[in-house]
Each structure stands twice: as structure tokens, then as C-alpha cells.
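Hello,

Our lab assistant flagged a job as stuck in the queue for most of the afternoon. It eventually completed. Since we weren't sure the result was trustworthy after the delay, we are filing this so someone can double-check. Below is the sequence as submitted and the structure that was eventually returned. Let us know if re-running is recommended.
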Amino acid sequence: METIYFGAGCFWCVEAVFIRLKGVITVTSGYMGGHVENPAYREVCNGTTGHAEVIQVVFDPEIIAFNDLLKVFWTTHDPTTLNRQGGDRGTQYRSAIFYSNELQRLASIDSRSTFATELWEDSIVTEISVADTFYNAEDYHQDYYMNNPDQGYCSVVIPPKISKLKSKFSHLLK
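-- returned structure --
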């Protein structure tokens, strides 16, 4: 098994996408990239901790290639908007890849300069950094979309991402 961390806006949205992929064993919402130990959601949302909302993806590379995860990442969010995804604004919503090993780092950099630039005309602002301490988000954030599909934010923002996933990556779905 391998682990990668993706920040692509609200972790509810990102989790809802990646949990649907074959070979993804677990997806956990949390925080990374900040300067405060054990941050809480309210602190992260205030932008005072420096953390990004991220998902921890544990995957089996025998079933899903890391490059496929990267393609899904680049396709299902906008990596050209600094500290923003749609209406969500702040450093906690930044586009980021936190890699766990050198091969992930190299593949992430390569995909940013090839695949991502093929998809997006504007400059890519995605941060690519070594993974540091991952803090699990509070329990109510885990599996949020699955548990709250009718919640206003979920019913408006997440379905288009899942539709895009299904139309472009049906071969990767569970």
C-alpha cells in the first residue's frame, strides 16, 4: 500500500471523488501543511494555522496506478486558482499534493508540467511538498457526502465533480 495526500478545495468534495476509485483502500479527511499542532476545523477555517484541507488516500498500486490518481486530481478541481476552489476561499482550500516518497514527488512534478498544462490554459498554482504531520479531521467530516448527500453544499457542489469523474474515468470506478 501507498499513501498520498491531496488538497483540492473542500475535503468533503475531494473525498467523495477519490473514494469511488478502484484500488483506493481508504480516504480520510484531515489537515496538513500548517504550523499548529492538532488543529481544529474552526482554526483551520479561520486561516490561522496554515493548514490545507486534504485527504489522505491509501491505495494499492497493483490495482490503481499513481499516475491515474494524479489524472483524477488534475481533472476534478481547478489547479489554477490560488487559495480557492469555487466559492471556497482561503489558504485552507489551496491546491496541493503532499507526497510520501521520491517517486511520487517526481511523478507529481512531471504530471503538473505535462498533463495539467494540457487540461488548463492558466498557470498551475498547485503546491507540491513532502508530506508532514497529517491530522485527522473531526469524525463528522469523515464520509461527509455519503452521510449528508442532501446537505445544501453537498447537493450543489459535489454532484458535478462526481459526474465529471464518471464521464472521464469510468474505467477506474469501483
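-- support follow-up --
The delay was a queue issue, not a problem with the job. The result is valid. The chain is about 35% helix and 20% strand. The longest strand covers residues 24-32.
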